[in-house]
Amino acid sequence: MKLSRIIVLCLAAVAVVGFWGCCEEHKASAEHADNKEHPSKEEHTKAGHDTNVEHEKEGHHGHDGDKWISLFNGKDLDGWKIKITGYELGDNFNDTFRVEDGLMKVSYDKYDKFGGRFGHIFYEQPFSHYKFRVEYRFVGEQAPGGPGWAFRNSGVMIHGQTPESMGKDQKFPVSIEVQLLGGDSEHARTTGNLCTPGTNVVLKDKLDLRHCINSTSKTYHGDQWVTMEIEVHGNEVIKHIMDGEVVLEYKNPQLDTRDGDAKKLIKDGELMLSGGSISLQAESHGVEFRKVEIMPLHN
Q1: Does the domain at residues 3-296 carry the CATH identifier 2.60.120.560?
Q2: Residue 54: how many CB atoms within 10 A of its CB?
Q3: Region 119-145: what's the mean pLDDT?
């Protein structure tokens, strides 16, 4: 293991002492949505966190003299954990997640049909205060049998549960989802939307109980590369940023007391969530990631 990665993992471990103490057993499942309304989703759950990671590693310089740290080495999936619905942790069914030509790819070329095999690839350490940047594009056709709403649909899951705590048949990790959506060349479809599996947020100083909330972004059609940034301040402000413009902002991510599984996670009445895992989605449409970077922020 490279010295720089050892430093990252050690400092992250120090920052997260006691982080997941009460959140080892929980499940979540949901039908996702794009920026249009869809039928009611299956219930999700979520785990709470309180961590701040401050570390350095080789990376690109970012804002204010800090560095963007690459979480993806461009060679393999070292440092990442895979969970696909219906399979044990680490079982990368049909090479759904792979690295080719320096890109992290979600691919369905070995699938006969999608079969509800929703997948997520988790970075190995949790985070709380940070900026996250991903460059992505949708490619090819949707896997046969993929749900209509999952056309050119992926996401970045933040403040999430650990993959180890997910049930074998769980569809999605309990988390705050920053949606990545692509256009169909004809209709408007915002990206950088918010979905809240088993959680709620405060939007415009009011607790918002909607499962999916649209951003104000433009539509990104075709196979173009798109850059998404997320600015996360623990349990305070979270911003979705496209082309340098904030397209959605909210605060106080928290457990949803209406969700049966989420109720199991509430300890001593505490609902607020301050950090957690980061994962990328596989929802039946091919997607490629060429940059996956983070910039830890001071608490």
Answers
A1: yes
A2: 14
A3: 98
Q: What is the pLDDT of residues 186-224, one digit of tens each?
A: 999 999 999 998 889 999 999 999 999 999 999 999 999
Work out the percent of the chain whose per-residue pLDDT is above 90: 69
Within 10 angstroms of residue 76's Cβ, the number of other Cβ atoms is 11
Domain boundaries in the chain? 3-296
